[in-house]
Amino acid sequence: MLKPYYKRAERVNLLLTDKRDQEVEENDLEIDYPETHHTEINLEEIIQASELKGHATEEDLKKLRKVLNQHREVFSNEPGKTDLIEHDIELISDKPIRCKPYRTSPRQNEILSAEIKKMLDLGVIEIGESDYVSPMIIVETIGREPRPCIDYRKLNAITKTQYLPLPNIEERVERVAAANYISVLDLTKGYWQLPLTKRAQRYTGFATNFGCYIPKTMPFGLVSAPFTFSKFMAELLKGSEDFCVPYLDDVAIFSNSLDEHIKHLDVILRKIGNAKLKIKPSKCSLGRKTVKYLGHVVGNGIRSPVEAKIQAIVNFPAPKTKTEIRRLIGMIGYYSRYIKDYPKIVEPLTNALRGKNKREQITWTPECQKAFDTIKG
Question: Mutual orientation of helices 322-333 and 342-351 as an angle, nearest 10°?
């Protein structure tokens, strides 16, 4: 999914790459920590944020409050832990992986130490030893806070990969866009809500300069994690396909009437609660006419690009390397349906990618500049 463009830091501690079938975004590897303090969830704030009060009757709001109160335990800033599935890892090699921790500065060690404490407090990791150890490191990018991640590239290289096609984004966007009322739920650190088997715990050990730790729940960055999570969510929400579609840890509920929508919301919250999963309250969008969903603004039969994504393209500087051209094409390709004659317009840029060395300098022709200006204009 597209992100606002920032010039990258000149030096980073880790290059995040995965040479499998699909690109892995930084968010798939980074650890975005939930709040670790217990807070009372204000359901009225969720209703206020839903914008329902502008077009719902008092009777409708009463029904919604009843549904939310019945399932209030589902809303939490801390991840839950399901007992319906465990993520397992099967290797194609029995040779252990023992990676040394990356060198980190005193400031980075302070950040890592604080985040490790949070993970221990949440119970998603424990102190331990393993013959399989991957390094943990800080990723620093201009425009964002320093983020910790675990570099599982060596483990992924010897992992027996399970393939499950990810849901078709275009099909999901079209279905949700046609609805009159839409809710989007975001699981609180979805991956962390799935426990690991003992074997997977052994394989996913990680090290810092101040100790070795064993994950108890599914960490970010594992090559088969999207497979496990997608399969689990599809099974969990089976029978609700006519009004609910999951995409990893995002769950969209869509209906034609508000009364119908409240009933659908009740069904999905019950399924999520029965699975002992938790939803992030601040990321809930309930009963809206339009929502941001999978990089689009959708609802009431319309769809359009997200403004921030458009600005990311507008602000993108003229590419100087093949890598930068690929990044640009990836950004505009996501919105290609909105660009008339897209294949013809982008052809000079794709032609500039010819050659074996993907990082070599390119020849920026007048045709490339014209294509670049047309796309941004």
Answer: 170
Beta pairing class for 134-139 and 206-208? parallel
pLDDT, one tens digit per residue, over 148-180 is 889 999 999 999 988 777 778 888 999 999 999
pLDDT tens string 338-352: 989 999 999 999 998
Question: What's the CA gap between 149 and 153, in Å, rounded?
Answer: 12
- Domain ranges for the chain: 307-376
DSSP character string of 98-128 = BPPPPP--HHHHHHHHHHHHHHHHHTSEEE-
370 Cβ contact list (under 8 Å, min separation 6): 348
Q: Rounded to 5 degrees, what are φ and ψ at 325?
A: -65, -45
Strands 211-215 and 125-127: antiparallel
pLDDT of residue 162: 80
Q: Which of 277, 314, 224 is nearest to 78 (CA)?
A: 277
- Which SS3 state, helix, strand or coil, does residue 363 take? coil
Identify the three-state secondary structure at position 208. Answer: strand
Q: Considering only the top CATH level, what class is 307-376?
A: alpha beta
Residue 297: CB atoms within 10 Å:
15
216 or 287: which leads in pLDDT: 216
**In b/e form, how buried is each residue of 178-192, taking b as 16+ CB within 10 angstroms?**
bbbbbbbbbbbbbbb
Closest CA to 113 of 211, 191, 12: 211
* Poorest-pLDDT segment among 31-35, 179-183, 341-345, 352-356: 31-35
